[in-house]
Specification:
globular; 457 residues; binds uridine-5'-diphosphate
Length: 457
């Protein structure tokens, strides 16, 4: 049945790990829907996920990904780029120059057959989805041009175009274009941002952030409404935690998890040193009979991993420490932990919330990650602490309160689960599938229509 598969082209760029992660999550969700409920989702959906800037952009547009890495490290550069690009003049200028340089090459990308991306001809995707802030304005014009055979860039588009916003508590204005058919947002703040950019309320849908399969909720759980699910998830999390620790080869101890996004950014080495030393002190103090555990996930940051592992680093024997490179089972590591220390990445925050994991936010990228701090604080499942010492203080305070009635961690765990959106990925995928099937039906009807006319004539 694969030749009948409906197709979606997902436009993104690998600036940060989140856009591709969201695209992959949607692709997996389509597969799960088709496999588990073929009656409602009869057609398989094939995704053509493309980094349109790297693969099709002429210089300097094909340099976005390395440039982003540099700017993310020197955040004042990023702040300048982000803020200039968010002014009306900046937005207009960006779109103007982009159209001049990239209209042709991007059109080639959007005209490609998802089943035969290296060959020409064939059929274009039935629908286009953007999961990137810089893939709205020009792709919409190109799609219109493709649909009208080059007659117009403004009117006459028929192929559905959808934006799925992959930021959480703040987003660049370029995410929002009133010309899209639907705009999925994960939070109230971003719903308002979309409205402020004149996207019609009827086109805005709010479910949550699309994230990896390990964080979804399946089966009978999803039938339990409201508070009940929070209670049940909490109860199960307690039960699961020891088992997951065992599976990961970790000790069954109060655990702090330190991460810095896919690239291990945000100063994880100094944070790990400060937290490690503090836990060591707590464990070895004469009044304490407890021990602790720290897990550091360095992602792709090899030098951080080396700096935190022997022989460069020797941890004291009173606590257990595990230093990892990139892991593919972040859901397990989060479910095994009591406290998360992380930069304010949207994906990591949404994942932690689903796991009921209180967060200490250690840094944020100016611009799109800034709003993630109030998102966590206002939802009551974490705080911001910019210095390694401050982070260690907070860890100590939160662990100390576990012995008291109504502990901070317990309250935050509860709040995190209330804010969690574990069904978002499947919900977004269901809506997209419905749009896609409707489009397919329409096309089919049209294919048949000339025959009817001929018979009538
Ligand atoms: N991640 C992972 N393995 C690692 C480190 C990170 O799978 O070793 C994932 C993490 O679970 C999250 C994503 O990478 O889904 C990071 O996304 P986020 O939006 O937090 O930050 P970004 O890397 O995009 O700046």
């Amino acid at each position: 049945d694969d030749k009948d598969a409906a197709t979606i082209q997902i436009l993104m760029s690998d600036t940060g790990g989140g856009h591709r992660a969201s695209a992959n999550a949607l692709r997996d969700a389509f597969n799960v829907l088709h496999e588990t409920d073929p009656a409602r989702f009869p057609l398989p959906i094939r995704c053509d996920i493309v980094d349109i800037y790297t693969d099709y952009g002429p210089w300097p547009y094909n340099m976005y990904v390395p440039a982003y890495k540099i700017m993310a490290e020197y955040s004042f550069l990023w702040k300048w780029f982000y803020e200039t690009g968010a002014t009306p003049l900046g937005l207009w200028l960006y779109d103007l120059v982009l159209e001049l340089i990239c209209f042709g090459p991007f059109k080639e990308c959007m005209a490609r057959d998802p089943a035969n991306v290296d060959g020409r001809g064939g059929r274009r995707a039935d629908m286009v989805v953007s999961v990137h802030p810089l893939c709205q304005d020009l792709p919409l014009k190109i799609l219109t041009s493709l649909d009208t055979g080059g007659a117009s860039r403004k009117e006459g588009r028929e192929t559905p175009f959808v934006t799925v916003v992959t930021d959480l508590g703040g987003a660049h204005p370029s995410w929002f274009n009133r010309g899209v058919d639907r705009c999925f947002v994960p939070s109230d703040v971003l719903r308002n941002a979309a409205l402020a950019r004149n996207v019609e309320a009827s086109k805005i849908v709010q479910y949550g952030l699309p994230i990896r399969r390990g964080f979804w909720r399946f089966g009978s759980d999803s039938d339990i409404p409201g508070g009940a699910i929070v209670e049940r998830t909490k109860a199960r999390a307690e039960m699961d935690r020891s088992a997951i620790r065992e599976r990961l080869g970790l000790s069954d101890l109060p655990t702090v998890l330190i991460v810095g996004g896919g690239d291990g950014m945000g100063g994880i080495v100094s944070q790990a040193r400060a937290v490690g030393e503090r836990l060591q002190k707590l464990a070895s103090s004469s009044s304490s009979s407890s021990s602790y555990q720290m897990v550091v996930v360095c992602g792709n940051n090899k030098s951080a991993q080396t700096a935190l592992s022997p022989p460069q680093m020797k941890w004291g024997g009173d606590i257990d420490v595990r230093v990892q490179g990139f892991v593919n089972n972040m859901d397990d590591f989060m479910r095994a932990s009591d406290i998360l220390v992380t930069k304010a990445g949207p994906g990591t925050i949404a994942e932690a919330s689903i796991c009921g994991l209180p967060c200490i936010l250690s840094s944020f990228l100016p611009g799109q990650e800034e709003g993630n701090v109030p998102y966590v604080v206002d939802n009551g499942f974490g705080c911001y602490q910019g210095s390694p010492e401050g982070i260690a203080d907070t860890v100590e305070e939160w662990f100390a309160s576990t012995r008291a009635e109504g502990s901070i961690l317990e309250r935050m765990r509860h709040n995190a689960l209330i804010a969690a959106r574990p069904d978002a990925t499947l919900d977004i995928a269901k809506d997209l599938a419905d749009m896609l099937y409707a489009r397919r039906e329409e096309l089919k009807k049209r294919e048949k229509a000339p025959a009817v006319v001929a018979v009538a004539a």
